[in-house]
Every structure is written in structure tokens, then in C-alpha cells.
Design a protein that fits this description.
The complex is a heterodimer. Chain A is an all-alpha fold. Chain A is built from 3 helices and no strands. Chain B is 64% helix and 10% strand. Chain B has a 3-stranded antiparallel sheet, with no helix packed on it. Chain B has a 3-stranded antiparallel sheet with strand order 5-6-7, with no helix packed on it.
Chain lengths: 166, 408
């Protein structure tokens, strides 16, 4: 201990103190301050980047959920539309069927009526034809019958004979 | 601090082991010493005649030292500060490679001269009519002849105020310069924006800065207040670490193993701790809340003592660890000279290198560990001084009074 005290060099202590203080001041100004602030800035940057990445991830997730939902909606909508279309188709088919049936019936009826009409007309025509034909036949017959006087008188007599005077 | 105990304990064991081996070696080699010493006196005669030419009045008796004593002296000399930066020297010719550093004395005015005037302690420096002499790495005022009046092994000559740029001061300046260069270059990389990553060596430094911030300052001082103390903690951490590492190089620098340096660092922690302390800290020291009054009276002196023992432990821990490490490494290198006879030259070099490499690896760990522990404990002390004691305030405010806190 005595030896240590004896060896103690105040000159060295003095210089060490000065060098240390100057070194601290110089390094603090030119090294530690920029280094530490840069490190801190970098760490803050990394923290921010991580936070924003996390946010982006969350947003992405939300977006994906949204997409899923929209997809689901679209799917259900499509299903509904398909169903509706199918229903409509069936209805249309049924309607068309009904309509066609009605139309057909109507046409048949019309045809029937027309046929009846035609028949009637033809009938009438036939009737008139027959009547005129019979008339002309009758006329011809009469002309033939009554070509001479004898036959005329014979006929008249015959007819008169037929007509019984009651 | 569980981790710190292990290497220190290991070091202690190694130190113990080394001592026993050294003493063992001496008893074995005693017989060979006689043959060895027959040659050494001849050299010494030559040396002494040289020395008497160079320095007339050397009080130290330069009698023949045994290798063991020489090694001890060399280790002690290494652990101390020095006025010149010697890289290596040749003992026989007295030639040394290195450079002298400026000596600054305050003795009736400022005296600045080169340490080369001392000629490695052999000569008396004459500066403006005053004579100075170095004895055991201390400068004493003396006369032209360089006589030192010894009293119980210590010179009692007047010592001028010594503010020399010694080897340690020079190393400190060098280290400070390296630190400034390293970290200003790291700071420059961030000029392009915080996301510009450092390149090259700065890439190593950035995680270390983050380590000090996240592992040392934040958990000990607290999230809110740590920023204020970061410059001190970072500077001290890197300064101690770099000094420790430089101490492991063959340059022979031993700055953190000097008590004045560790004392200065510990004083800084003491000052910062106590000047940033809040009311609660002082309250806990002088009038401990939550204990009965007689206990308060007993605790106050203990706590006051605690203010000083905490930095004191910092000072001693760093000093002792580094000094021990340097002693062990140098002692292991000395095996080369001590065991030359028993193990042959190649064998002793092999054994020494093996052990030195092993210890040096541990020393690398210790270099980091001591810097870490010093910074860690400093931040712990600062944290204790600045933390908020919500806990105690809440209890004294409620109706139960202070007695309740004793239970809590």
C-alpha cells in the first residue's frame, strides 16, 4: 500500500483527467451523439416499418374478408338469379303451352266455324244449283212433254184427272 | 458479477503456480548457477567501468544480480511509468531502441526538456542551473554530482512538481487519438442517413456501441435517464478496453495497470454518480427510510463510507487485474531465461511460448471483461443514484407511516 502511494503519479493523474474529459467532450460531440441518434432513428424506422407492415397485413386481411364476403354475395346472387331464371323459364313454358293450347283450341273452333260456314255456303250453293238444275230439268222435261198439243192436252187431262174434286 | 470471478480466480491460480515453479527452479539450478556466475562477473566488471566513466556518482550499488532478481526488477520496471518509450534494449551494450518523451517540471517556473538528458536514469540532467535525477522512475532535485540522500531505502531529496508527458501519458494520447479516429469515422457513415450501414472496421464498432447501450446503460440506469450518461460510459468502456488491448501488445505499455489512471477513472465515476444523484439517493444515505431511528444512526456512516468504497473497488479491481495479467505474462516469458539449463534453450522457449499464448488468450478476455465490468458497475452506481423510489414514497404517504416500510 505504501509502495502504491509512493508510486502514485499526480502528473499522470492530471494528464489522464484532462485527456479523459477532452476525449469525452470530443467523442460526445463528434461521435456518440451522431451515432446514437442515428441508431435511434434507425430503430424507430424499423419499429415504424414493422408497425406499418402489421397494419398492411391487417388491411390485407380485412380486404380478403371483404372479397370473400363479396364473392359469397355474388355467388348467392347468381344462385338466386339462376333460380329465378329457371322459374321464369318454367313459367314461360307453361304459359306458352297454355297459350298455344288456347290458340289451338281457338283455331280449331275457328276452323270448325269456317268449315261449318263453308259447308253451309256450299250447301246453299248446292241447293240453289240443285234447284236451278231441277228447274232446268223440269223446264226441259216440260219442254219435251209439252212439245205438241196432244201431249199438252193429255197432261192437262191427266192432271185434271188426278186432281180429285172434292 | 459472477463471470468476472472466474478468470480472476484462474489468474490467481496461475500466479500461484508460477511462483512455486520459480522457487523450485531456483533450488534446482543452484548448482549450475556457480558455473554461470563465473562468467557474469567478468561482464559486470566491464559494465561497471563503463558506468563509472559515464556517471560518476551512482548511489545504487550495481552489484551482480541473479537472473531471478533481474527478472523481478524488469517486471517491476515494466509495471511502472517511464520517461522514455523504450521498445527494446541491449543490456550489455546499454543501447536501447525507442524515443525520449518531454519532461515538464514546475520548479520555480515551467521547465520543459527532453528525457534523453537523463540517459535512462544514468545521467544528471542540467536544466537552467537546476539538476535533476531519475531514481526508480521519480524525478528528484539534486546537485551537479547527482547525490541522493537516502533514508530507509527512499531518497529524501526534494521532488519538483512533475507534469511530464510520460510513456503512459503518451500512450493515453495515442489511444485517445485512435478512439477519435475510429468513432468519428463511424459517425460519418450515418451522415447519409440512419439506414446507411457502416462499412469496414466501423461495422465491428456499431454492435459494440449498441452492446454498451443495451446491455450496460439501459438495464442499469433506466430507460428514461440513460441517455445523459452514454457519452461517459461509452468513452470509458472503449478507452479502458483499448488501453487493455494495447497493454497486451509487445510495445510494453501498461496504462490501466497504473493506479493513478484507475484512480482518475474511479474519481470520475464518483463525481458523476454523486452530482447526478437525486433526493432519494441522499435520503437513503443519511436517513434510511423504513428502519427504526437507532438503525438510521448506525446505517448513515456505513452508507457514507459506501459512497467511497464503491469507486475504490472499481479502482483496485482494474488496477489489480491488469497488473496481475502483465506480471504473469512477463513471468512466463522469463521462463526462457530461468529454465535454460534444465530444459535446454529450445525447450524453455517452447514451454514459455505455450504458457504465454495460453495466458495471453485469457488476458484478451480479461481486457474486455475489465472494461465491461468497470462500465457496468459505473452505470449500476449511477443507476442507483438516479433511480426513482416510487415504492417508498407511496408508503410514507399512506397512513401507516414509516414503520410499514421495514416489512416491505
Amino acid at each position: 500500500m505504501e509502495k502504491l502511494l509512493d508510486q502514485f503519479s499526480y502528473g499522470l493523474f492530471f494528464w489522464q483527467l484532462i485527456i479523459l474529459v477532452v476525449l469525452i467532450v470530443l467523442l460526445a460531440k463528434f461521435a456518440w451523439k451522431p451515432i446514437l441518434s442515428a441508431l435511434e432513428a434507425r430503430e424507430d424506422g424499423i419499429r415504424d416499418a414493422i408497425a406499418s407492415a402489421e397494419n398492411a397485413r391487417k388491411e390485407m386481411q380485412a380486404l380478403q374478408a371483404d372479397n370473400q364476403r363479396i364473392l359469397q354475395e355474388a355467388r348467392s346472387e347468381r344462385d338466386a338469379m339462376l333460380k329465378e331464371a329457371r322459374e321464369m323459364k318454367e313459367k314461360m313454358i307453361a304459359d306458352a303451352k297454355n297459350e298455344a293450347q288456347a290458340e289451338g283450341l281457338k283455331m280449331i273452333n275457328q276452323a270448325k266455324a269456317a268449315i261449318e260456314n263453308e259447308k253451309n255456303v256450299a250447301m246453299a250453293e248446292l241447293k240453289s244449283h240443285v234447284s236451278s238444275l231441277s228447274l232446268s230439268i223440269a223446264e226441259k222435261l216440260l219442254k219435251e212433254e209439252l212439245a205438241n198439243k196432244d201431249s199438252q192436252t193429255k197432261l192437262v187431262e191427266k192432271m185434271l184427272g188426278e186432281v180429285k174434286l172434292n | 458479477m459472477v463471470i468476472s470471478k472466474k478468470p480472476i480466480g484462474l489468474l490467481a491460480v496461475m500466479l500461484l503456480g508460477m511462483f512455486t515453479s520459480v522457487t523450485m527452479a531456483n533450488t534446482v539450478t543452484d548448482t549450475t548457477h556457480t558455473t554461470n556466475e563465473t562468467t557474469t562477473p567478468v561482464e559486470h566488471v566491464v559494465q561497471e567501468t563503463e558506468e563509472t566513466h559515464a556517471v560518476a556518482h551512482v548511489e545504487e550499488g550495481h552489484e551482480a544480480l541473479s537472473p531471478k532478481e533481474k527478472i523481478t526488477e524488469h517486471i517491476q520496471h515494466h509495471l511502472l511509468d517511464s520517461y522514455d518509450f523504450t521498445l527494446f534494449s541491449d543490456e550489455e551494450t546499454g543501447h536501447s531502441v525507442g524515443f525520449s518523451l518531454p519532461v515538464i517540471l514546475i520548479d520555480n517556473g515551467l521547465k520543459v526538456f527532453s528525457a534523453s538528458k537523463f540517459e535512462h536514469g544514468k545521467a544528471v540532467a542540467n536544466v537552467d542551473g537546476n539538476y535533476y535525477k531519475v531514481y526508480h522512475n521519480k524525478i528528484y532535485k539534486t546537485d551537479a554530482a547527482g547525490t541522493l540522500e537516502m533514508h530507509e531505502g527512499h531518497p529524501i531529496n526534494e521532488k519538483p512538481l512533475d507534469f511530464s508527458i510520460t510513456k503512459n501519458v503518451f500512450s493515453l494520447l495515442l489511444t485517445a487519438l485512435i478512439l477519435i479516429l475510429l468513432f468519428s469515422s463511424l459517425a460519418k457513415t450515418y451522415k447519409k442517413g440512419p439506414n446507411a450501414l457502416p462499412t469496414g472496421f466501423s461495422r465491428v464498432l456499431e454492435p459494440l456501441v449498441i452492446f454498451v447501450r443495451d446491455e450496460i446503460a439501459r438495464p442499469n440506469i433506466g430507460e428514461k435517464k440513460y441517455k445523459k450518461f452514454m457519452p461517459y460510459l461509452l468513452t470509458v468502456f472503449f478507452l479502458i478496453w483499448l488501453l487493455n488491448l494495447i497493454g497486451l501488445t509487445p510495445l510494453g505499455i501498461n496504462v490501466t495497470g497504473n493506479i493513478a489512471v484507475t484512480f482518475c477513472l474511479a474519481i470520475c465515476t464518483l463525481i458523476i454518480t454523486n452530482f447526478s444523484a437525486n433526493k432519494d439517493y441522499w435520503g437513503h444515505i443519511f436517513w434510511m427510510p423504513g428502519v427504526p431511528v437507532p438503525m438510521k444512526l448506525v446505517l448513515a456512516p456505513i452508507e457514507i463510507l459506501g459512497i467511497f468504497t464503491k469507486p475504490f473497488s472499481l479502482m483496485i479491481r482494474l488496477f489489480a487485474n491488469i497488473t496481475a495479467g502483465h506480471s504473469v505474462v512477463m513471468g512466463l516469458i522469463a521462463i526462457i531465461f530461468l529454465f535454460k539449463q534444465t530444459l535446454t534453450t529450445g525447450g524453455s522457449i517452447g514451454v514459455s511460448m505455450l504458457l504465454t499464448t495460453f495466458i495471453s488468450v485469457i488476458e484478451l478476455l480479461v481486457a474486455f471483461l475489465q472494461a465491461f465490468i468497470f462500465t457496468m458497475l459505473s452505470s449500476l452506481f449511477i443507476g442507483m443514484a438516479v433511480q426513482d423510489h416510487h415504492h417508498d414514497e407511496d408508503h410514507t404517504k399512506d397512513g401507516l407511516g414509516e414503520h410499514d416500510n421495514a416489512i416491505v
